[in-house]
Design brief:
The complex is a heterodimer of chains A (about 550) and B (about 350).
Chain A lengths: L1 H10 L20 H10 L6 H12 L7 E6 L4 E6 L7 H17 L10 H8 L6 E4 L2 H9 L2 E6 L5 E5 L28 H11 L5 E8 L5 E8 L5 H12 L9 H8 L11 E3 L2 H9 L3 E5 L5 E4 L17 H30 L7 H11 L6 H21 L2 H21 L5 H15 L4 H39 L1 E2 L2 E2 L51 H12 L1
Antiparallel strand pairs in A: 1-2, 2-4, 3-5, 4-5, 6-7, 7-9, 8-10, 9-10, 11-12
Chain B lengths: L2 H11 L12 H23 L7 H9 L1 H33 L6 H18 L1 H26 L17 H13 L5 H5 L6 H30 L1 H6 L3 H7 L11 H31 L5 H17 L4 H7 L2 H34 L1
Classes of the chains: A alpha+beta (about 550), B mainly alpha (about 350).
């Protein structure tokens, strides 16, 4: 009858509210949703004995939740200290325990009667910076998972949580997926609190707001939504809030899951949500009026709404000189499109339009293809396939063996295939060129999209020639222009054409010239800074007047 | 919403690539085309912005009554179909004659129509954005082509200036001007723009811009090929580009023109299909034009393939002697009727109020 029960759950959200007895937790027949529901319905009681019993029934045989019984003060009021190991800082827990035992006995509070003891110790004894309370078993558990040290006192039907977070995380280090030459080297880590502080250290305005959600019925993952109040559009904030609170999954383990829940077009090959590991980039997104989404347990922060051009930006663009940033930026655009189009165009030209190639070059290519048993398309396809295989293998292998893959790939496959006359050298050049181009795409998931669509272009080029490549290009563009990210056009500064945004897209201009925030994301207050801030010699007019006035006095 | 400019620049420039009547004075006829086209735009758009919320199908029914309005609108729908069909056919002929001689025409036609159907399916917004993306590319490629022409530019081909009187110039201007009737799409698009009142300005600007492209193309074609050759070739601009050899490496720059033409045809044809489907759906009182796309596309495909047997027959469509009567009957006369109906209406309401 289990399936019937589950079916019933699918169609109705009503739960059997009859029992809130902790004793039921011992019932092995309870399924997970019933257990969760039961835990949520159990309220804490004045009797510490009952509370501890319920707690023990809830956690079962779990061994990482030590319960330390205590007797408080001269009246020997029964109490207990509970933590989850690894969530709290051991020293802080020890200090708290010491405060409750030794220091309490030495302090004037020691004779406090049991009824007023909890208020007294919270108000006058505990040194924690933050105290939270819980009324239910579920709330108590939430305090524990928040890294709090939970104190239960007999006769008091609430749990006291003293903040003592001390989970050990990886140190803040340079993110490996987005490296820069000049620019900050810190990256997000797996702790949402730490990440939050990394962003807040960069944006010290109190108007950096952060809303917290608990997502995942079992993982209870913290998800935070960051935005600058008054800069981000309210409709956008509301929309994102809706989309996040609509999630009802049991577990969130990474940014990708949230991404799938909030993106506009699930079938899109191109990422519709921007991911970054760099606090400086997240901060710059917030400054443009976008929203950042942090998820506990992952160093990736999502930013929405996303535009196509954001994915081709590298953080270095903003830390290097403007002319070089512009040139390198355009190089990247070129590289992106060539990584999609080159193999297809090569196939098409060699299959159908040999006359487009200058004669001498054509002779060279044909000569090198002498004896190759495959048509161009098959050749290109094979080599691209092998290359993708190499890349995937290199990614999955441990770093130490990874270099072996390169040797196998470059030496054995490349060289031997040419020597054996299976592929022609120009194809290897084409594949290498595309590979290099796709490596220069700064966002990994974006280059993935390019990699995959490349194969479509090879097929189109082989079947329809350059006409087919153009057909594919138009289809791709059509798809890109029809996409939206949170209602904002994805292909934005190009289609629809927004000339004022080009300042930051096709070329980069000096910061003193970036007077406007990008449209339409930052259109709530479009002006970023007053114009006329170009560096120049001499004093400002007002300063000169001030000094003259001072001199004449 | 500036997209009207961008989408129609390409429309207006397309005919240039196919015609070249006035020999060495082609530039002068191109100059004439601009005011002619502006006139058409004023004729079509002028009435359009009087009825900001309505397409031509809707307001012709309102002005002339349902039966007569339906006749007029179906004339326009036929114009959309006809222009779309001939455009695709010409593009297919160019591709086949220049690049893939063995490809059957229905193949290319089918693919272009498929693109247009997908674009219209995605909606007018996507077509507009595509126009935004493609028009700069379109202009860029043509500019590059003209730049290539400069190498073999022979200014003597342009002489003697205006020696043959004004008749050839005028007759050379007729066809491109008549093709300006494609601005009829304006009548379908105005309700979709965010600022309908500005649509007319944008459209006129687009005519001017395309006029610049037109003159540049016409002049460089003649300057490269010489008067006689450019008059007698079917696709003079291609011929001109093909004859350019800058170095050993850069020889076949007409590929640029074919690519850009492809972009132009795409925008043009998607707009025409969208307008046709939208108009027909309003005529039939349907809620959504999308259901009509596939049937329309099939009819349109057959029409494109079957209407003309050879390239020469196709080019006959573009002769002033065929095109001018066609455009007059299908566009000018209905629009003049519409205008008269509108003016009578205004006069009458004036009379009532005053």
């Amino acid at each position: 009858m289990k399936w019937f029960k589950q079916l019933k759950q699918l169609f109705s959200t009503k739960h059997d509210d009859s029992s809130t007895d902790p004793a039921n937790l011992e019932d092995d027949r309870l399924d997970i949703s019933e257990r969760e529901h039961l835990v949520q319905s159990i309220r804490l009681e004045p009797s510490i004995e009952a509370n501890l019993k319920a707690l023990k029934k809830m956690i079962g045989p779990s061994w990482d939740i030590p319960i330390r019984p205590l007797l408080l003060g001269t009246h020997r009021v029964p109490a207990a200290v509970v933590i989850i190991e690894g969530f709290s800082d051991k020293n802080q827990v020890a200090e708290l325990t010491q405060a409750l035992t030794v220091e309490l006995l030495n302090s004037p509070l020691r004779d406090t009667p049991a009824e007023s003891l909890p208020e007294a110790i919270v108000g006058r004894l505990l040194q924690s910076s933050k105290i939270d309370y819980a009324d239910t078993l579920d709330g108590l558990w939430r305090l524990l998972t928040g890294g709090n040290t939970v104190i239960l006192v007999d006769g008091y039907n609430r749990a006291i949580g003293c903040s003592s977070e001390g989970a050990v995380y990886r140190a803040i280090e340079e993110p490996s997926s987005e490296t820069v030459m000049r620019g900050p080297r810190d990256g997000f880590i797996e702790s949402i609190a730490e990440n939050m502080s990394l962003v807040r250290r960069r944006l010290r305005t109190p108007n950096l707001w952060s809303e917290r959600f608990i997502v995942g019925s079992l993982t209870k993952t913290q998800v935070a939504m960051l935005y600058i109040k008054g800069l981000a559009h309210e409709e956008l904030i509301e929309e994102l809030r809706q989309r996040i609170s609509r999630i009802r999954i049991d577990g969130i383990l990474g940014a990708g899951q949230i991404e799938e829940f909030i993106e506009d077009q699930p079938a899109s090959l191109f990422p519709l949500v921007f991911q970054t590991e760099r606090p400086d980039r997240a901060a710059s997104m917030l400054l443009e009026g976008r929203i950042a989404i942090m998820i506990d347990g992952t160093p990736f922060v999502l930013c929405v709404p996303t535009e196509f051009s954001m994915l081709l930006h590298a953080p270095d663009d903003y830390y290097e000189k403007v002319p070089s940033g512009t040139i390198l930026g355009s190089l990247r655009y070129l590289a992106f499109w060539s990584s999609i189009l080159i193999p297809g165009a090569y196939t098409a030209t060699l299959t159908f339009h040999q006359e487009l190639i200058p004669t001498e070059l054509l002779i060279k290519i044909i000569a090198s293809r002498e004896g190759v048993p495959f048509p161009v398309a098959v050749e290109v396809f094979l080599m691209e396939f092998v290359f993708e295989l190499l890349r995937e293998a290199g990614l999955r292998l441990p770093k130490a063996i990874g270099s072996a893959v390169t040797i196998v790939g470059a030496l054995i496959l490349g060289d031997a295939a040419i020597n054996a006359g299976l592929v022609s050298p120009p194809v290897v050049i084409v594949v290498a060129l595309t590979a290099l181009s796709s490596f220069s795409t700064p966002t990994y998931s974006f280059s993935l999209a390019a990699r995959l669509s490349r194969f479509v272009f090879v097929i189109l080029g082989a079947v329809l020639g350059l006409f087919g490549v153009q057909f594919g290009f138009l289809l791709l563009l059509m798809f890109l222009t029809s996409l939206r990210s949170f209602g904002y056009p994805y292909f934005s500064p190009f289609g629809p054409l927004i000339l004022s945004n080009m300042k930051d897209v096709l070329y980069r201009t000096w910061w003193w010239d970036m007077i406007r925030r990008p449209f339409p994301v930052g259109s709530r207050e479009p002006i970023r800074q007053p114009p006329g801030r170009k560096p120049r010699p001499g004093l400002e007019k007002e300063e000169v007047e001030k000094r003259e006035a001072r001199r004449s006095e | 919403m500036l997209f009207i400019i961008r989408s129609t620049v390409s429309i207006a420039t397309l005919p240039v690539l196919t015609t070249g009547e006035a020999a060495q004075d082609a530039w002068a006829s191109s100059l004439l085309v601009v005011p002619g086209t502006v006139l058409i735009v004023l004729l079509v758009g002028g009435l359009g912005i009087k009825f900001k919320e309505m397409t031509v199908v809707e307001y012709s029914a309102e002005l002339l009554g349902r039966p007569l309005g339906a006749v007029v609108s179906s004339l326009f729908l036929l114009v959309f179909l006809h222009f779309a069909a001939t455009d695709i056919r010409v593009y297919a002929e160019v591709l086949i004659s220049g690049f893939t001689p063995k490809t059957p025409i229905p193949f290319i036609v089918g693919i272009v129509i498929a693109l247009a159907v997908i674009a219209s399916q995605l909606g007018i917004e996507t077509i507009g954005r595509m126009a935004d993306v493609l028009t700069p590319l379109f202009v860029l490629f043509i500019a590059l082509g003209i730049l290539g022409c400069l190498v073999t530019f022979d200014i003597q081909h342009l002489e003697p200036v205006l020696s043959r009187g004004s008749m050839p110039i005028i007759s050379g201007a007729l066809t491109p001007t008549a093709l300006g009737a494609k601005y009829l799409t304006l009548a379908m698009l105005i309700p979709n723009t965010t600022k309908p009142s500005k649509a007319l300005t944008y459209a006129v600007v687009s005519v001017l811009l395309s006029g610049v492209v037109l003159i540049a193309v016409a002049t460089s074609t003649v300057a490269v090929l010489g008067a006689d050759l450019s008059r007698n070739t079917v696709f003079p601009f291609f011929k001109a580009l093909r004859s350019v050899r800058i170095t050993q490496l850069i020889q076949r720059i007409e590929a640029l023109a074919v690519i850009s033409w492809g972009y132009g045809v795409f925008i043009d044809v998607s707009l025409l299909l969208y307008s046709g489907a939208k108009g027909l759906s309003q005529l039939l009182g349907l809620d959504d034009y999308r259901v009509l796309l596939l049937p329309l596309a099939v009819i349109w495909g057959f029409y494109t393939v079957e209407s003309h047997d050879t390239l020469l027959e196709l080019m006959h469509v573009y002769r002033p002697s065929t095109l001018i009567p066609f455009v007059t009957v299908m566009v000018f006369v209905p629009y003049i009727v519409l205008w008269i109906a509108y003016l009578i209406r205004v006069r009458r309401s004036h009379g009532e109020s005053g």
